[in-house]
Automatic annotation (TrEMBL):
Family statement: Belongs to the type-B carboxylesterase/lipase family.
Residues making up the signal peptide according to the UniProt record: none
Protein name: Carboxylic ester hydrolase
Keyword Cytoplasm recorded: no
InterPro entries: AB_hydrolase_fold (IPR029058), CarbesteraseB (IPR002018), Carboxylesterase_B_AS (IPR019826), Lipase_GDXG_HIS_AS (IPR002168)
Residues of the Carboxylesterase type B domain: 6-478
GO molecular function: hydrolase activity
UniProt-listed Enzyme Commission number(s): 3.1.1.-
Pfam families with a match to the protein in the record: COesterase
Organism whose genome encodes this protein: Sphingomonas carotinifaciens
Gene3D superfamilies in the cross-refs: alpha/beta hydrolase
Keywords on record: Hydrolase
Amino acid sequence: MTDTSQIVVRTASGTVRGRCRDGILHFANLPYAAAPVGPRRFAAPAPVDAWDGVRDLPLTGPTAPQRLRAVPGLDIEPLVGTGWTAGDDYLTLDIWTPAGGERPWPVMVFVHGGGFVIGSKDAAVQDGATFARDGIVCVSINYRLGVDGFLPIPGVPTNLGLRDIIAALGWVRDEIAAFGGDPANVTVFGESAGAMAIADLVTSPLASGLFRRAIIQSGHGAMTRETAVARRLVDKLAKLLGIAPTRDGFASVDAQAMLDAVEKVSLPTARIDLRGSDGREPVFGISRFVPVHGDDLLPLPPLDALGAGAGKEVDVLIGTNAEEMNLYLVPSGVRDRIGRLLAWIVLRKSQPRAWSVLKAYGAGRKRGGRALTDAMSDLVFRWPARRFAEEHRGRTHVYELEWRSPAFAGELGAAHAVENPFVFDTLAAASGPQGLLGENPPQELAIRMHRLWIDFATDGSLPWAPFDRETRQVYRMAAGEAAYEAPMPAAAFLP
């Protein structure tokens, strides 16, 4: 029988009303910070203003300003949400918690992906009810994106999106006990840009003590920029908008005009050089907006910070999918349409030794687009994740998802984002004729992956040995076993 009763919980800011359904309590769109509008738009996250009485929490709420782009033949809404829902109060979180049983429960806090420019906590594949069903308090958060979250505008605190995530984790530390969670047993997990953010926060002095464990899905700590390099993006956007490259200049632009400018500057044809002092572009053109290092939040590049011992008290589970770049280059047709010359032109914008990279990945023996796709899977995702594991001084486990989606006539394969429906055990949300997983994905794999995440969050346990530079144990999810993984060809071309 379905229980649709309501329940109230008191927080420091006031009392909130949630819902109980099928033995799971759900508190939706609960604010963890003040609305980032008006004078607070380009300010560090501020505490929520207190309220009187019981606050009813709507099931749907505002999201950070964003604009989705269609992907041919693929339904992306279950993966990233429905796009921008206008409204001021979007620094919010959802909580799912078991309605009965013995408290306190382990806590898992999810940070969504989307290239730091799109996405929300409300995407269908990220339904935290599946974790609450299995004895976890699951929290999912929104944070500032794009210009408002990740553009180092002079006079504005850097890395506002990361500061939002830290504020949400501080809220969880202070408030989650009232919802049945254990504030001393928090695991933060995320995918893609959300995983990049988590990898950065593992090394941040401002996030120290806010979580015990971290799960980094298709992310790592190498996607940050020098502030001076990111300022080129500030100047480019200001020129497009016809404003001064200052806080007041950007604050004078409404959200729609800002999204227009973000769209223009994100085009592959946009003329902007975001290579660092080493001649590399660490994001490979996937997004213009990423965190910067060299501030109080990320004093050092994350890999350097790891080597110095930052985050060694955090247990880390980090992994990738075997064919990450297929998501970007298969649906668009790019993988099978371009030859070696165009592949070189694309790669040299980010990698100074582009010809050598493509040769190492089989250019000449296979079509240039396929060599580019294989190379970028390793350069952008897989090898930097292994480098994170190598440098982290704490306990680190590495996984790889090698299950291949049958979508796009079997060509999508083990692409970026494929793991999330398995992690959340929400296969139905991503299945079907235009689903990321195609038809009939294996439920048994979802049961196993979901349980691995729960066990790790509960007490840190995993059924394979930690990763180190010598034994290099990587757990293959579909095979269900760990094995030695040799360094990739990409190792010769990245720090």
